[in-house]
Amino acid sequence: MKEPAATGLTDEQAAAVRAKVGPNAVRSHRARPVAVLARQLRSPLLILLLVAATVSFFVGERTDAVVIGVIVALSVGLGFANEYRAERAVEALHEHMRSRARVLRGGTLVERDVIDLVPGDVVQLRLGAVVPADIELAEARDFECDESVLTGESLPVRKNPGDTALMGTVVTAGTAAGTVSQTGAGTAFGAIAAGLGERHAETAFQIGLRRFSGLLVWVAAALTAGVFTTNLIMGRPLLDAMLFSLAIAVGVTPQLLPVVVTTSLATGSRRLTRLKVLVKRLVAIEDLGDVEVLFTDKTGTLTQAKIALRQAVFPDGTPDPGGADGPFRFGVLCADPPGSTPLDDALHEAMHDARAMREWAPENCRRIDAKPFDHERRMASVLVEDLAGETRTIVKGAPEAVLARCRAVPEESRRLAERLFAEGARLVAVAVRQGERELVESDLDLAGFLVFSDPPKPGVEHALERLAALGVTVKILTGDHPAVATGLCEKIGLPVTGVLAGEEIERLDDAALADALPATTVFARVSPEQKARIVGIQRSGGLDVAYLGDGVNDALALHRADVGISVDTGADVARDAADVVLLEKDLGVLADGIVEGRRIFANTIKYLLMGTASNVGNMFSAAAASAVLPFLPMLPSQVLLNNLLYDASQLTIPADAVDGEQLARPARFDLGLIRRFMLVFGPLSSMFDLAMFALLLRVFHTAPPLFRAAWFVESLATQTLVIFIVRTRRTPFWRSRPATALVIAVGVVVAAGLALPYAPFASDLGLAPIPPAILGTIAVVLIVYLALVEVVKRRFRTVPAPRGRHLPPHHHVHRRATPFSRGLRVVRHGLARSASGS
Ligand SMILES: Nc1ncnc2c1ncn2[C@@H]1O[C@H](COP(=O)(O)OP(=O)(O)OP(=O)(O)O)[C@@H](O)[C@H]1O
Ligand SMILES: [Mg+2]
């Protein structure tokens, strides 16, 4: 077996093992061009079409077959380019967000990317961390893991030395260390993640989209079969009938749908990055848009987190000048090293400022023992020995916790604490016990209080107003005192309907707590577990819950929330637990993120409504016309070209602007609405097409090339221009301004369609130039059609979105798997290292 766990592996040994067993990854996030291309070609329709075109090239119409080939290649290229770009965006996100484990390498504790772990590595685990591999525990102190991601069991499981902490589970209590026994795909977690496939999780929205595509597949199948048989009955050549019906089927199916969704998400993530919001998984943007309740911690979100020591006072309230026996000195002696907690940092800062006038120096005291600050106990204590050899336990922490351990607390000190709390100060009590040789935290003497200030952040009021306007309820979960939290709420204009303190929450069972949630704005003096419990109970009530926090004490709640949001400068367990990382801790950018999520949703719906309303209608008309006309209303290649141009005009929809009123509430996918939309607007647009046919045949007596050219232009113009009406619920539609990109794209496409019949290669496409009289007719038909859609769309105005939980299955596995994915860069790095190691 391997050498003792105490020193772990060296980096070279680890690299050698890794060369053999591979990285600790459960999936890969590399954008692979071949895979993306394969996805574009996966459609059986396209393959059938290409086969038919090839056959026709050899036995029949050569130009038509070539044109079909070119158009199919163009649309595959279009889909490929867009989807590949989106995949690259995902890849870039991953490279931003590596997660690190604490591992012993060559006897020293270092941080390494989780995917670099190998069997034999000795790893340390702490509260809130995701277990980075299967780890056989050598030591464990009060250690518990939440294994629900593997077992579904939500109660934490106790782990003792000899047990295995399982990859992907979350440490809910205690600390532990042990040796990695299995990594990556060899773990249970790896097996589950692998079973879900390489690609990211489908959101509820994407599931809805898939159902919707399923619906269209049926429409397409029915249409194709119908068109094919009628065309055969009408005596058209088999190959023509086949090509035509396949082209219609291609026209009906929204091939670009997946592309539009991923492009929307990628565009959204780029915009958010500019706003200093990083999303770890693209789909998290959509989750952001659904947020209904936001829990947030207090420090740094609502306050400036510029915590400064305002004053130190003796128990009777007189100021401490900073002498050797005052609370200030004791507080400094009890502070954890810089960087541990904001309060201690403020103490270090204050000491630095006041250094010159001190007759004592902390260096003159020797630290014999220490219990660092812990969010559960809300206290820190040390045992120190001064130059004279005198020993002293110093305890500092939340006044409730410290005063409970003092032997006699004067009534005036309690009143003093109450008063300071009411003023909104962050307050810490300091108490000492002299003479003992070991650390004793009872029968203390109160030395005084340290009063810290942490002013509200400017701009918070405005951010809260925005969130309220977005329908998001904000609640505070803080380890601080209730009076401080409510005082702050008053200052920043957050109406407080109710306050619950940790002790009271402890006494409530889940049902009672669930009942209390709606009326409670402030949860104070809550422990890390309580934060997570509150988030969990709020979620089980059916609302989408986000949690914003940056401390070690926030990690559990971040894991539990639908959307975990942390801050770049926060504790690393918090950052690892989050889906969204803010580069600046600011509620305002969060509102931007929520808006972005909803914008993407709204734009995708636009694309769907467009596809069903006009595209399907057009294809339907073509099918119907082929049954009554003596010739094909459009050649198969023209159907495809028409569809390609239409698709191209739709590609800018992800960048379109969305009306404010549509962003005000989270929206839910409503298949019913889309179906109704299709049933009303499909026939409506077909009616106009059929009227156009009648005019072309009866009034203008057109020959096939002119007939096809006229209808090509009319159908392209109606189906693309209608976007300006469908994209907004406002009437008249011009009260909503579309994005310039959309206007340009649609304009260019319509112009191109209009120009085609006059192009030198028009006859190759089977089109003839359109005379002015027919152009005029097209314009009239177009205007009447658009006007009618404008009127009818009002009927679709208010459809209350169904609410309720919608997170798809395996959401948590996908989310937990994010850090364990391997990208190009990381793999190369690993190879380079193992090469140099050998
Ligand atoms: N370094 C420290 N030493 C002693 N006591 C501390 C220290 N840091 C915090 N406390 C006490 O513990 C309480 C809870 O702090 P904690 O950091 O758990 O709150 P929190 O939930 O992070 O608060 P917030 O919501 O404001 O971020 C504080 O109000 C304070 O009384
Ligand atoms: Mg905090």
TrEMBL record:
Its main location: membrane. Signal peptide: none annotated. InterPro entries: ATPase_P-typ_cation-transptr_C, ATPase_P-typ_cation-transptr_N, ATPase_P-typ_cyto_dom_N, ATPase_P-typ_P_site, ATPase_P-typ_TM_dom_sf, ATPase_P-typ_transduc_dom_A_sf, ATPase_P-type_domA, HAD-like_sf. PROSITE patterns: ATPASE_E1_E2 (PS00154). Its EC number is 7.2.2.14. NCBIfam families: ATPase-IIIB_Mg, ATPase_P-type. This is Magnesium-transporting ATPase, P-type 1. It comes from Microbispora rosea. The lineage of its organism: Bacteria, Bacillati, Actinomycetota, Actinomycetes, Streptosporangiales.
